[in-house]
Specification:
This protein is α+β, with helices and mostly antiparallel strands. It contains eleven helices and nine strands. Strand 8 (261-262) and strand 9 form a beta hairpin.
């Protein structure tokens, strides 16, 4: 694939993967809690797992805009797969900036899937303040941690892992950890309300060995990596996932309203002004959320002064919009919307995740309020 021409909207390989693999597998991924391995393999073959990898290592050399478009399109078919890809792109962006060339090349070839390992039992959703340790030992560095949630736990090839620094007076340091390293233990399989195939599980580390060379950035430089690389990618893509889920819910609700009738009135649901008003308000919310995603991307691309404010806003706004839009879609569908074949309830369940996924909506609103009041975000 020519990286200069790559666009998810026009690339035949990507569109075929959406139609023939992701959409086809979506129900089984949800019902069975199945990790979307087949989708990842198809995306790898089409070149899209290397989206954020530099062209010099064989990747597409693309950024936030393309990543948002990709995960939004995937989320319209399968929220689980979209979140797995979102977390892979976040990890890959850190590795691209600070990781070894051989891993960067493997990601570009679609042969290496990564993910983030930030959230911990001790610091909960305050992912920027890890409590886990990194201690220098004779053969390198030993990591000990109780990670509360890692997407693709036991499925990814590597974890972009946070710990307290070895020696620096700073909040954190980032490491590249082989997911098969001795001393890692993945808890029971994920069995949740939504995003059911994303393999999010607690992971325990006891004396996991890494090398100094596996450090991603300087000792104590984790906060800068989190804020400068991870947060923009994660918040933009998480918002894009919410936008894709809204599209799925709206499509299902509108189709149901157009094809379901009150026989005695000789009217479809869509003939009722109240139903149309519900769908209209939901459409406006979904469009506003996507426009905020696009403006956030433009702010990042242009280095605007309000870029970080937009990054904070976009996940919270899109996540809350998805709660409202998917709720409206359920109300339009009525009792029928509880049935899986209507195509609404899965998006409704998947959309619940964003507001409680770190950084949570409540934490983001606090940061936004601090920014509005001219207060420091941290401290």
């Amino acid at each position: 694939m020519n990286a200069q021409l790559a666009s998810p909207a026009t690339d035949p390989g990507f569109q075929q993967t959406l139609q023939d693999v992701i959409a086809v597998d979506a129900q089984a991924v949800d019902v069975e809690g199945r990790y979307p391995r087949r989708a990842l393999e198809a995306l790898a073959r089409a070149g899209w797992l290397g989206l954020v990898s530099a062209r010099e290592v064989g990747g597409m050399g693309l950024g936030h805009r393309a990543a948002a478009e990709v995960v939004r399109a995937i989320a319209e078919r399968c929220g689980t797969t979209a979140m797995v890809v979102c977390m892979h792109y976040c990890g890959a962006a850190v590795i691209e900036a600070h990781g070894p060339r051989e891993v960067r090349e493997a990601i570009a070839r679609g042969e290496h899937v990564s993910t983030l390992a930030f959230s911990e039992v001790g610091s909960r959703s305050m992912f920027w303040a890890p409590q886990s340790s990194a201690v220098a030992v004779e053969d390198g560095v030993a990591l000990d941690a109780d990670k509360s949630w890692i997407t693709s736990a036991g499925e990814a090839d590597s974890y972009v892992w946070s710990s307290r620094p070895l020696a620096a007076d700073a909040p954190s340091t980032i490491w590249l950890v082989d997911a098969k390293a001795p001393g890692l233990t993945v808890a029971a399989p994920f069995d949740g309300l939504g995003l059911r195939g994303n393999a999010s599980s607690p992971v325990q580390a006891r004396g996991v060995r890494v090398r100094e060379a596996d450090r991603l950035g300087p000792d104590g430089g984790g906060f800068d990596v989190m804020m400068g690389i991870v947060l923009p990618y994660f918040n933009v893509m998480n918002a894009a996932v919410s936008c894709g889920l809204m599209e799925a819910a709206l499509r299902g609700a509108a189709a149901h309203a157009a094809t379901t009738s009150y026989t005695h009135l000789r009217q479809a649901l869509a003939d009722m002004p109240t139903v149309r008003a519900q769908l209209a308000r939901a459409r406006v919310q979904a469009d506003q959320a996507w426009l905020l995603v696009l403006d956030t991307v433009a702010a990042l691309e242009g280095g605007r002064e309000d870029a970080m404010l937009r990054v904070l806003e976009v996940k919270a706004a899109a996540g809350d919009a998805a709660l409202g839009v998917t709720d409206a879609a359920m109300r339009v569908g009525g009792g029928a919307a509880f049935r899986k074949e209507v195509g609404v309830e899965r998006a409704f369940r998947d959309a619940r995740a964003s507001s409680v996924m770190a950084p949570t909506a409540d934490a983001l609103y606090d940061f936004i309020g601090k920014a509005v009041c001219g207060l420091p975000l941290f401290g």
